[in-house]
Write a structure and sequence with these properties.
It holds the Pfam family PduV-EutP. The protein is α/β, with parallel strands linked by helices. It has 5 helices and 6 strands, in the order βαββααββαβα. The site of guanosine-5'-triphosphate has 20 residues, from helix 1.
Amino acid sequence: MKTIIFAGSTGSGKTTLCQWLHGQEIAYKKTQAVETFDQAIDTPGECIENRYLYKMLLVSSVDADVIGLVQDCTKEESYFPPAFATMFAKPVIGIVTKTELARTDEDIAQARAFLQAAGAERIFEVSTVENVGVDALRAYLEE
Ligand SMILES: Nc1nc2c(ncn2[C@@H]2O[C@H](COP(=O)(O)OP(=O)(O)OP(=O)(O)O)[C@@H](O)[C@H]2O)c(=O)[nH]1
Ligand SMILES: [Mg+2]
């Protein structure tokens, strides 16, 4: 199974994805530092919200096989700069989260566009809360 490092803004759903991947109870807790799970590395949203913390992401990504850029589809903005994926010499995928909260298909299309511009090579759409789309992500990680 691939180890994935999640990067994305505060509240985008990275920790929830880690908990789901590891069969843990979903419990909200603000991530304050980089946290290592068996198959995942969780990072605080601040790593992507402050450019000077990109280095923390880069260093932490050394232990991962793939980078997962996490974009909340209910947010109208994205912190991922264009071609952000080129910073990592590893595969980069995109994960659109909270899809059950999308008001229109346009919300999802916008989130996908942010991730595409960032350079994600594959994009998954998930709702961790409603258990939709997450199996495709798991299957990819198990490939
Ligand atoms: N409705 C809905 N809420 C979700 C989903 N995934 C996560 N959440 C909620 O979004 C909130 C933030 O989720 P986290 O996983 O803690 O976010 P994070 O990306 O780890 O945030 P930081 O640790 O602050 O960087 C929590 O209250 C979650 O329950 C989802 O698919 N649908
Ligand atoms: Mg977190």
